[in-house]
Fold:
Amino acid sequence: MELIFILEQVLNGLLSGVYFLLIALGLSLIFSLGGIVNLAHGAFYAIGAYLTVVLVPRIGFPATFVAAPVLVGLLGIVIERFLFRRFYRADPILSLLLTFGLAMVAEQGLRMIFGASPLPYAMPDFLRGQLFLGDFIYPYYRLMMLAVATVAVTLIWLLIYRTPFGRVVRAGVQNPEMVGALGISLEPYMVAIAALGVGLAGLAGVLLASIVTIHPAMGQEILTAAFVVVVIGGLGSFWGVVAAALLVGVVRGLTIYFEPAASEASMYLLMVLVLLFRPRGLFGERIQKFE
Amino acid sequence: MLLKSTLSRRTLLKSTAGSAVVLGMPAISYGQGDSIKIGHLTPRTGFLGPLGDYAVMGIQLAADEINAAGGVNGRKIELVLEDSVNPQTASAKAERLIERDKVAMLIGEISSASGLAIGQVAKRTKTVFINTGCNSDALRGSDCNQYMFHIEGANSMYVQAVGTYLLKENQVKGKKWYSLTADYAFGHDLLKVAKAFMEKNGGQFAADELIPTDISDFSPFLLKIRQARPDIVISNLAGNQITNFLKQYSEYGLPFPVVGFAFDTAVAWGLGKGNFSGVWPLVWHHLVDTPTSKKYIGAFSKKYGKPPENQSWGDYFSLRIVAQSMTEMKSTDPIKLAEHLRTGAKFDIGKSREGYFRAYDNQMVMEMYAVRAKKAADMKDQWDIYEALGTVPAAGEDLESIAPPKGACNMA
Structure:
């Protein structure tokens, strides 16, 4: 019987790992290609959630589901064009300061427009309900999230590993100078990756708006976990982020089962353990510019 | 090739100026000259931030009204507002308000841990501090002092308020209860009080989970609750924790009734249709029907475009009490103020019966309330989320019957 409960927590952990994944994947893409430590990533997720609350009553959930991430992605293009672009070659500490300021401005902006109180928002009725399999319970909503994340991750994998576009991106991660020497400008690729990464954070905001409290500082809440996932997974590694996100979800779930008070500490402990044995993270590749 | 950006001093300044503006926000103060300065501390960030927002709205409204009516003894009230952040910061800022800003007294706080820190500063500097949001019984017990007053209800008063209705509906005797508790001073204190109440009335304790204040995914806990199959689930959570918990409780569709031993209306207003259920305690709510409450609700709604809730009630009426007392005494001396409050003077705090500070522990002795969540279909608007169950103690009963039990407080 005990084993059933543990298994239940493992599967539930995989489910919650999915939303770490949506947020961390964009973070990893932007860092691997541009070297930008994006502390504003959580703010884009918060903006996605707020857009959901604003748009759903006007255009319904399905349309919002498409529109909100696209809008956040467009915002990503603007930010990339006018801010990130100036910092690709600069000391990482500068982009850290820039995005830290950006996160603050975004959070206070949300506070000024919508107030500090949480905004009421409930999932659409057609997604309410639970699937029961014996002792197991899965809300339809989380299964939908799982499906959406699986599709999104598969598409991104295809884009990066099966298209000419992806070939340039991967080369740019490894050796931007050589890509430039071959006469290829990385600029348009960076725009696309920023839009994609930031749009994914927006998508996570849309999905999580039904589950968590919608308040101006919600971006801060997930940012640390997302960074931990990126570090555990390893820079420049696509599957590393996927594996790390699921692992963090499962480890947290199991910790809560056995020792709830340590639930937050568990992911940092995991990070320490991974870095002790694999300093570049689980699947981290050797990237010249970061060595 | 990526654009090569050369870093100049100007770029660095530009990129950091934005965060400096936000980071270095000075205290906001109003008025000048011969005014009475009141220091206000409350959390504006973190899981209690949304409640702190209401606290500020409440005290600002009170200051506006008092100043519009000519101030106190001809002097204007000047508020110095600070974000108390956490216990360490709250303590440092309380000292700064007293020593640098020379405030006459302190009002505010929500976190019981920060409240304790401010209370210690108040005692050391002999400054009056009215606590408007910390619930721990310990603040009225082993940690009490003669300069710290409590307009906020204590945990034991909240438990009595909801407990009265649980007993009426046979939800205690022989029932297996499972609780989730905020993992900091307030939650630990509440769990102790809750256990004592449930034990006394024949409830069976199933399990308790201590919940970190920064956790947002409750699903692993919900699975544990489901396994335990309790008769009743009890929330000893605080701030945004309650919002996260109730949203996900409704998502997982667990069948066990939920009740809470602590609550703020703002966290339920932020839930969304169909996510709210259960019976909850409140120190005040916007359905309380007295002339003073009606006037307060009207003024608040006019100024902020939304109804007030319990946290804004605490900060609003604290300042009203201070102004009324100082006017009656014809003095602004804080020591005299403390003495006056401890004489058992009665105050209209918008409830059907007047309240007074009990000299034993400086706790405001007053009515408490319980509310029941409405079904989504019965809601008239987004604010209409619960029905009032009534007052505790009931009309005609002694108000002191729900005040914190005496024993641990030693003022000397």
